[in-house]
Amino acid sequence: MSELILVDKNIRGGYDARSATNTEYAEFDFEDASNENDDNNHHQPLLSNIDSSDEYDNDEESLIDNSEQKQYKLPSEGGTIFSSFLNMANSIIGAGIIGLPFAFKEAGFWTGIFLLIALTIIVDWTVRLLMYNGKLAGRSTYQDLMEFAFGRPGLIAISIFQFAFAFGGMCAYCVIIGDTIPHVVRSLFPKIHQVPVIWLFADRRLCISFFTLFVSYPLSLYRDISKLAKTSALALAAIIVIIVSVAIEGPGTSTEIRGSSDLMFNLMGDEVFQAIAVISFAFVCHHNSFLIFGSLKQPSLNRFAVVTHWSMGIAFFTCFALAVSGYLVFTDKTVGKQHIE
């Protein structure tokens, strides 16, 4: 017979906790071990299937080793932040920047600078907002996001608009190729018409066909836009060459085609809204945002924000340099295709 007594040695206010405990808790009787020698009673530990402590420690160590060996592998495919930056910057800095001196002429010098800064900030915010909405909606493409927000009509509308914009842009690039490359080739090689095969670069139509079939089309077959990082870097280098050429050769142009120096630093022009349209077209990159975001090796909103900020910053300084260097030379005589001619 065993007796369990709870004892509290503390006495509070003259009250003996020991006596209260003895009266509150009764004695618990437990069966003694009189049946230990009973043949019909088989004693077996409750945890008989558990290994010894040493074996358990070994198993625990093996589990820890396995967990350490099992590492989550980061995605091995996709581009880096730098490659995504090149693609987005190239998406912004395209043929549209040729019209920026004309936009400054329409808006005025100081108003043009203000519009360029304001639209850069707006585009930076809207591109990141687009990705944020895609995350909230659980959609990974522009088309799916439009369908989620506006239903089937939204999907049809964005598909039509994106096709029209892309088709028009490709046609514009073909026109630019036909207006520039043959003239440059003929000026460098006056007798190119007499050279077999090479003469096609001096022909407008054949030149457009060649670069479309053997340059633009193969590059458009990539499913991962991160593969175009090197091509984007080459395109950005070409843009820098154009800007440097305009800045160096502009002041040396004939006075007959140069504009009035009195209008160089005017405050505001007469066609501000037309200038907004030209600058906005130069900064169009929303249609590529989801593609660039998905091409990141570790896509996240923070990493994409870094890509966006750097791309917008480089695009702003590039556009600013070309717009100012072109406008200050031609001022009121600036036209949209002045630099192409």
From TrEMBL:
Listed Acidic residues bias regions: 52-63
Family annotation (InterPro entries): AA_transpt_TM (IPR013057)
Places the protein is found: Membrane
Transmembrane segments: 80-103, 109-132, 153-178, 198-221, 233-252, 272-293, 305-330
Mitochondrion among keywords: no
The keyword Ligase appears for this protein: no
Domain of life the protein comes from: Eukaryota
UniProt domain Amino acid transporter transmembrane: residue ranges: 78-336
Region (Disordered): 33-69
Pfam families: Aa_trans (PF01490)
Membrane topology (UniProt): Multi-pass membrane protein
GO molecular function per UniProt: L-amino acid transmembrane transporter activity
Annotated GO CC locations: endoplasmic reticulum; membrane
Record keywords, A-Z: Amino-acid transport, Membrane, Transmembrane, Transmembrane helix, Transport
Family indicated by similarity: Belongs to the amino acid/polyamine transporter 2 family.
Protein name per UniProt: Amino acid transporter transmembrane domain-containing protein
Source organism per UniProt: Parasitella parasitica
Upper classification of the organism: Eukaryota, Fungi, Fungi incertae sedis, Mucoromycota, Mucoromycotina
